[in-house]
Amino acid sequence: MSGSEDRRHVVIVGGGVAGLAAAECIVRHHPEHFRVSVLEAKRVAGGRAGSFTDPDSGETLDYCQHVAMGCCTNLIGLLSRCGLTDALRRYKSLTFFHPHFPPSKFTPSTWLPAPLHLASVIGKLNYLNRKQKNEIRRGLWKLIRSSHHQLDHAIASEWLQSHGQSAETIRLFWDVILTSALGESSQHASMTAARKVFVDGFAAARGASDVLVPDRPLSTLFGRDVVGVLTQLGVKVRCATPAQKIQTHQGNLQAVLTSDGQRIAADHVISAVPWHTVARLFDDPEIARILPRLSSFEHFPSSPISGLHLWFDRPITERPHAVLVDTLTQWLFRQPCGQFQAAKNSSEHYYQVVISGSHPMSGSSKDEIVRQVLSELGAVFPPTKSATLLRHRVVTDPNSVFSVRPTVEQLRPSPSPAPEKLPWLCLAGDWTRTGWPATMEGAVISGIQAAGGVFENAGLPSIAPDPGLKRGWLANCMIAH
């Protein structure tokens, strides 16, 4: 291996999932050509996949529960290469709860080939009537027969309505899944993003819709475990080190300046910060001329996600997770890491409610929101009514995800935004052009793409993200490309 002084220095600004994925990709494939430094502003790496310490119990809890799906092959691959395959608990079925109907189990067939493995699932959703179920079947068929190019510029709700989906069907089925997956309702989301969810996430392959839940806090998974592996591979992860500026002159890279006055020389920079902060890293007029859209990224609309942390004096359900329908509450999690830590304090039982696209909460107080959520939980989990809520915490991030609107989809930048004029610069982050919505999978893909851009700019063979679960012959015949 070459000495560190002979290797090109890649500075990754941002230690979220995208930045960590980029670092891992670079040192796995070309450690002889590059040394890598990651600069993270927070005390713990992981970015928006973060956690906090509850002052009363001492538990480390995620701000908002993150989940993946079986179709997230790049995220799964990253964790596997880091020896963390056991960090995700896999669930092959979901249960939907409506306040006025029996629970509905969503379990795809294990013997029918995709996409027929979903054939019986819609019929088992008890809260839908026959007309609504038939609408959904026709809509899904039309969707899998439409290529993503045919859906460019389409808003999901408009496309669904034009293909026979009633307002009730959209509210009770399509929006239940889309809002959770995209952080945005069908009224705003692009139909291209919606297709990604339903085709890649459900129809394309068996196992695609499996739910994967981290068995430890995200700050532990990414900030300790993944960072620990990267450190062993030679990556320098520097937390509590905010990058203030990427210093350039007439478009040429000079250094990365930190907020505490350090000047870090670099040959390549990967900016892996969120869309609403990336423009602040540059003040060279030449960069603005070469990348005229740079200042527009901060105007991408954001969508909030809220996590309601609830501590009861007794269990309200033994289910690890549940999907709620026609309620403000969307998901309930009996936190896996909370289960482990419950032994430390058996008098408290922790649950988390997740509300994606939580715009409707903006006009309500936190106490009003908690009261509504408790009422909804009581309707589907009766033990809630006799349980005492010992304490609660409501956490909302207004910039949880970018809003996957058609106008935004068209503006998402490529990982190498100006390969000829700015060969030293790559962009990463789930908001870049990954083909995925705002997810951990999209973040990992963006990191791999950015690493590939670094390789190309250094005259090395590039690398592509994993293409996803392999489709069978029937899925290849039935699903439009």
UniProtKB/TrEMBL annotation:
Q: Identify the NCBIfam families for this entry.
A: HpnE
- Look up keyword Nucleotidyltransferase and say if it applies: no
Q: What is its EC number?
A: 1.3.5.5
Q: Under what name is this protein listed?
A: 15-cis-phytoene desaturase
Q: Where does FAD bind?
A: E40, A41
Would the keyword Oxidoreductase be found if you checked this record's keyword annotation? yes
Q: Which SUPFAM superfamilies match?
A: FAD/NAD(P)-binding domain (SSF51905)
- GO molecular function terms listed in the Swiss-Prot or TrEMBL record: oxidoreductase activity
**Gene source species:** Novipirellula galeiformis
